[in-house]
Task: inverse folding
């Protein structure tokens, strides 16, 4: 990002809504920079849970596809770090809350694939607007699988969520299942088939709509998954 020091300054940044939502739910957030993949297990030592947040697109090479030219920026270090941390968290049985890019990373880390651009005019996933207020205002409904962890967290099988993404899950990773869908059929949430795994993974941005009821997802993570 540009700073007074340079037109291009490497920074680690995170929307304040993420740690604020964790703190409001009774958790104590600690922010992590990118790490070398081989250090993932060491990085997670001493932590009780992992939240994987939104960000740039994953390099299609990470899920075995050529780049179709519609990716909106990729980061090699972010990809390598996030994929390794997702795999390590699952292997350790660590509670994991994966949001937007985090949900996509989790799916790819476990062998799934992505739609490089699933937006279509006239659908609930319109092409991303260049007007920030329009992006933040976009909403659509989702249908949630009864009995899923997500349905239990919400206490319902229908919700209205925000829409701040142009990529989404295509093939669900082995060992996982889709548990929420948009009206156009796009997968909006996945969970491990093993119901004992403490994982919540959603495509939307609950940290931006905590005032609309999505605080319950952070509370579920802090109190029920981490405990």
Result:
């Amino acid at each position: 990002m540009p700073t007074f020091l340079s037109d291009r300054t490497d920074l680690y940044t995170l929307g304040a809504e993420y740690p604020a939502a964790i703190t409001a739910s009774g958790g104590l957030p600690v922010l992590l920079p990118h790490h070398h993949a081989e250090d993932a297990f060491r990085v997670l030592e001493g932590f009780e849970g992992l939240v994987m947040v939104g960000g740039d697109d994953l390099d299609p090479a990470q899920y075995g596809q050529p780049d179709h030219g519609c990716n909106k920026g990729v980061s090699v270090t972010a990809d390598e770090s996030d994929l390794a941390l997702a795999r390590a968290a699952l292997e350790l049985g660590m509670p994991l809350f994966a949001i937007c890019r985090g949900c996509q990373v989790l799916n790819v880390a476990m062998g799934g694939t992505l739609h490089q651009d699933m937006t279509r005019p006239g659908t609930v996933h319109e092409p991303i607007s260049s007007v920030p207020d329009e992006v933040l205002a976009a909403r659509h409904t989702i249908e949630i699988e009864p009995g899923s962890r997500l349905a239990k967290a919400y206490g319902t099988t229908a919700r209205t969520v925000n829409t701040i993404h142009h990529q989404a899950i295509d093939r669900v990773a082995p060992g996982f299942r889709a548990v929420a869908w948009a009206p156009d059929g796009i997968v909006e949430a996945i969970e491990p088939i093993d119901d004992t795994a403490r994982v919540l993974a959603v495509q939307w941005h609950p940290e931006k709509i905590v005032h609309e009821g999505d605080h319950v997802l952070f509370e579920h993570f802090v109190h029920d998954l981490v405990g």
Notes: Helices lie at 17-24, 40-44, 76-92, 101-109, 132-137, 149-154, 215-226. The longest helix spans residues 76-92.
